[in-house]
Amino acid sequence: MIGTGDLSELALGWATYNGDHMSMYAVNASIPKTLVRWLVNYEAEISEGELKNVLSDILDTPVSPELLPPEQNGAISQKTEDIVGPYELHDFFMYYMLRYGFAPSKIFRIACIFFADAYPKEVILKWLKTFYRRFFAQQFKRSCLPEGPKVGTVTLSPRGDWRMPSDASANVWLREIESME
Questions:
Q1: First to last CA, the chain
Q2: Domain 2-66+84-180 class, CATH top level
């Protein structure tokens, strides 16, 4: 059985413990959601006909585990980014935390410059705090991941580069973030 959870979902714990983990191989385990979306968009742009339509429809659909039934009008009732925040921010935070070991304050400063036209500083800070809280709280799920390839420069596989105890505390990082508020 092939697992489809991506690096972003694994970082935020947006994976079902002993559900997504039941796969034998996690093919997307080191690919962030923003890269998955970029690749789908690229393929949609160079495709024609029905394939282009299907890929465009996928891109227009909000990210959702669809665990809740749809609303009366058929709309998706559970949108992931409404709950955990924008994946483009989380993927940015994750990359600079994992690849370079930057502190939350440095990541925040860089994010405020990079996303100046998209998000106010208060929104970036809110989701940065959410990222660190969720990242540390969900390590237990990453400790039992199925095997998967390392495609980029960062991975959260316990059989690859990532070593973190399941009971690690985010307190030091969260205190730094709270001092920026």
A1: 45
A2: mainly alpha
Per-residue pLDDT, 154: 85
Q: Give the pLDDT score at 128.
A: 98
- Report the pLDDT value the prediction gives residue 113, as an integer from 0 to 100: 98
Taken in order 101, 34, 30, 19, is the CA torsion positive or negative?
Answer: positive
d(CA 56, CA 50): 10
Radius of gyration of the chain (CA): 17
pLDDT one-digit tens code per residue, 130-155: 999 999 999 988 888 888 888 888 88
Domain-wise residue ranges, the chain: 2-66+84-180
Do 131 and 93 contact (CB within 8 A), yes or no?
yes
- A 10 A CB-CB count for 141 gives 22
b vs e for 81-103, b when ≥16 Cβ sit within 10 Å of the residue's Cβ? beebbbbbbbbbbbbbbbeeebe
